[in-house]
């Protein structure tokens, strides 16, 4: 006799629902579970939580906009056993109350890291070719500059990775196709792990001093806010590039701007800022040796569908009693974004 299908709620804000869950994915979900409701309220009222469908729900397929799972929310979800998050970080909704109740959490973080790794790798290659100052010279001064004394290219140069997180490791894999050396700073990676990745572990200061391109993949934690300071950027090699696809608050942006103002040979490619969108008078976006992209590295457009597909298949594994592939555990949150 087949097992009864689990009862599920889909819960994400309207923007996420439109991006993550197409009709095809919703139909596949309904093959796996009984969908009781699709909710889009990020800040539910007490009245809206008094719903028999919530009391029956055993799992949630979530995305951006899932409410924080505090005691009030969990009391409305007495049957909840697992959350499958079709996005990256789970920090916006997990709580001690959730973990204490033994609710399992799985995330599409690995899937969301993939486009970030691809985006970052492309920026690394273009930076090693010193594309950015040449584009600027062509557009603003009509100068066609095939030669550049600071160009190092992708043969014999050094790329530095700050953090060997999911994304950092994906970037490392992509870099394998280049003829470059890779150095990295990550206090949570053992020498044996680094050797397996063919990465030389060094201090953070050495990453900045030795690398032609420095790419940041440090998670945003209490002790990483403002971690990257003036002295790091000032120590960079002539013509080097700093790339940040992690979180803007990791960088002391005023100090980065000060260094870039005195070092026009340096470039910064910032897909993230401490405040997004930036204020009209923000300094960094207006600087001639800075390129700001509007948080493009993560999953966008059709890329988002991969996250719901992954979580629907994860739900199928859960329903069948199989091991989960994207499960988070409580202790991971101390070192993950």
Distance between the terminal alpha carbons, to the nearest Å? 42 Å
Shape: elongated
Largest sheet: 7 strands, parallel
CATH class of the largest domain: Alpha Beta
Q: Taking strands numbered 1, 2, ... along the chain, how are they ordered across the largest sheet?
A: 8-7-6-9-10-11-12
* Mean pLDDT rating: 94
CATH architecture of the largest domain: 3-Layer(aba) Sandwich
Helix % is 25-40%
> Mind telling me the CATH superfamily name of the largest domain?
NAD(P)-binding Rossmann-like Domain
Topology:
Blueprint: E1 7-11, H1 14-20, H2 23-32, E2 34-39, H3 46-49, H4 52-56, E3 59-62, H5 71-75, E4 82-85, H6 96-100, E5 104-107, H7 109-128, H8 131-141, E6 155-162, H9 166-175, E7 179-185, H10 191-196, E8 200-201, H11 204-210, E9 213-216, H12 230-234, E10 241-244, H13 253-262, E11 267-270, E12 290-292, H14 305-319, E13 327-328
Parallel strand pairs: 1-2, 1-3, 3-4, 4-5, 6-7, 6-9, 7-8, 9-10, 10-11, 11-12
Antiparallel strand pairs: 5-13
Helix pairs in contact: 2-14, 7-9
Description:
With 337 residues, this protein is of the alpha/beta class. The chain has two domains: 135 residues, Rossmann fold (3-Layer(aba) Sandwich), CATH 3.40.50; 180 residues, Rossmann fold (3-Layer(aba) Sandwich). It is 36% helix and 17% strand. The strands form two sheets. Strands 8-7-6-9-10-11-12 form a seven-stranded parallel beta sheet, sandwiched between helices. Strands 2-1-3-4-5-13 form a six-stranded mixed beta sheet. It starts with 6 loop residues before the first strand and ends in a 9-residue tail after the last strand. The model has no long low-confidence stretch (mean pLDDT 94).
């Amino acid at each position: 006799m087949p097992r009864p299908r689990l009862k599920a709620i889909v819960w994400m804000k309207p923007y996420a629902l439109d991006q993550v869950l197409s009709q095809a994915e919703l139909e596949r979900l309904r093959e796996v579970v009984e969908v009781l409701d699709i909710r889009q309220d990020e800040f539910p009222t007490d009245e809206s939580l008094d719903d028999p469908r919530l009391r029956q729900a055993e799992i949630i397929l979530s995305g951006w906009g899932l409410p924080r799972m505090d005691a009030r929310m969990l009391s409305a979800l007495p049957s909840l056993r697992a959350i499958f998050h079709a996005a990256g970080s789970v920090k916006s909704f997990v709580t001690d109350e959730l973990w204490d109740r033994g609710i399992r959490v799985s995330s599409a973080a690995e899937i969301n890291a993939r486009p970030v790794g691809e985006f970052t790798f492309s920026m690394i290659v273009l930076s090693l070719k010193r594309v950015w100052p040449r584009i600027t010279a062509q557009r603003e001064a009509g100068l066609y500059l095939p030669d550049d004394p600071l160009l190092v290219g992708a043969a014999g140069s050094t790329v530095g990775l700050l953090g060997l997180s999911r994304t950092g490791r994906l970037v490392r894999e992509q870099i394998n196709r280049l003829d470059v050396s890779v150095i990295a700073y990550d206090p949570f990676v053992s020498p044996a792990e680094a050797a397996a990745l063919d990465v030389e572990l060094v201090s953070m200061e050495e990453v900045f001093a030795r690398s032609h391109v420095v790419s940041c993949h440090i998670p945003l934690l209490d002790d990483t806010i403002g971690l990257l300071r003036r002295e790091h950027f000032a120590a960079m090699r002539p013509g080097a590039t700093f790339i940040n696809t992690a979180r803007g608050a990791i960088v002391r942006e005023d100090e980065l701007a000060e260094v870039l103002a005195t070092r026009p040979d340096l470039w910064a490619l910032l897909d993230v800022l401490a405040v997004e969108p930036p204020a009209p008078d923000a300094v960094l976006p207006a600087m001639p040796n800075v390129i700001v992209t509007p948080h493009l590295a993560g999953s966008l457009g059709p890329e988002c569908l991969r996250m719901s597909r992954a979580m629907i298949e994860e739900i199928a594994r859960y329903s069948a009693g199989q091991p989960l592939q994207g499960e988070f555990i409580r202790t991971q949150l101390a070192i993950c974004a």
